[in-house]
Amino acid sequence: MRAILHILTTIAVIALAFWAYRENYATQQALSEADKLHANIRDAHSRLAVLKAEWAYQNRPERLRDLAEINFERLGLLPLHPDQFGRVDEVAYPPAPLLPITNPVDVSSAAADDEDPL
After folding, report:
1. What is the pLDDT of residues 47-103, one digit of tens each?
2. Which of 11, 72, 5 is nearest to 64 (CA)?
3. How many domains is the chain built from?
4. Sign of torsion over alpha carbons 82, 87, 88, 93
5. What's the domain range around 43?
6. Which of its termini does the chain have fewer beta carbons within 10 Å around, N or C?
């Protein structure tokens, strides 16, 4: 009986060692993938910073003003002035939609039932 217990214990230890070995490699693979994702995120952030800087450079007011002057005949762009803007109270908002009647109640028959015969 004792021999069977030793054999079962040995098999359980080997099975647990095999499981721990596989979990170790799965964990290392997950950590490696997480490191790759972090590197990709860092690269994306650096590309985004470059794109933001380029966007700010391309949208300089003096550059846009010069481009508008160069292409005035074709585009007809003029500078904006404060008097070209409207006020909020001048905005015409659409009227609120009427709510649909989903469960109509016949009021005339209900009123007739409520009347006292006295």
Report:
1. 999 999 999 999 999 999 899 899 999 988 888 888 888 888 888 889 888 888 888
2. 72
3. 1
4. negative
5. 1-73
6. C
